[in-house]
Amino acid sequence: MKDYYAARANEYDNIYLKPERQDDLQDIRAWLTAELTGRKVLEIACGTGYWTQFYAPSAQRVVAVDAADETLVIAAERVSPNVQLLQGDAFDLPAFDMSFDAAFAGFWWSHISRKDIVRFLTGLHGSLEPGAEIIFLDNRFVPGSSTPIAEQDAAGNTYQRRALQDGSTHRVLKNFPTREQLLADISPHAKLSQYCEWEYFWALKYSLKR
Ligand SMILES: C[S@@+](CC[C@H](N)C(=O)[O-])C[C@H]1O[C@@H](n2cnc3c(N)ncnc32)[C@H](O)[C@@H]1O
């Protein structure tokens, strides 16, 4: 996954140019910014900082982690001065020198294997203050707009075959969870939860139990 996104870094943002998704993206930018205003945010798998560039200027502080140096170089060019970019592993987060009352991850949940969800959530929640607000944003599967599913494994993970501009092809884990699946995954940890849907995207927002 990291190697695929490292190779894709320079063409990654093209995904945000799909014409049919522009109305949703505009709504979500405003929604996310309002949700994270004034917050101390831990962002997981920030990639090129596409979302960070919009919400961070009105957040209090942001630490944004990604595994790939190649995407972080692009993020560094566009994020506001209150953002600290950090190379790191979402499954093995470092000890931070600040506490966070919010977390955000865009288009990351879909890349977590079913078997790793509990491990990921345990690590993330351990870095946050009790009562912190957490937001995951990701893709809905929309025939004709989404890359088709090529395979499914026994655990229910789905995979796409994706091509990059250099001609290489990659088998990429990409899950499209239902609302029920998402709520079940976070229910042991969540106090208030809200599932939102746009035509092309879903978001899950919840507050961590105290
Ligand atoms: C689909 S991209 C999402 C980027 C960004 N959040 C966005 O919404 O545009 C997934 C990102 O996860 C990063 N990644 C892959 N494995 C990771 C890991 N174990 N820990 C942290 N980041 C990882 C990749 O480098 C890539 O930037």
TrEMBL record:
Residues 41-131 form the Methyltransferase domain. The keyword Methyltransferase applies. InterPro entries: Methyltransf_25 (IPR041698), SAM-dependent_MTases_sf (IPR029063). GO terms for molecular function: polyprenyldihydroxybenzoate methyltransferase activity. GO terms for biological process: methylation. The keyword Secreted does not apply. SUPFAM superfamilies: S-adenosyl-L-methionine-dependent methyltransferases. Keywords: Methyltransferase, Transferase. This is Methyltransferase. It comes from Advenella kashmirensis W13003.
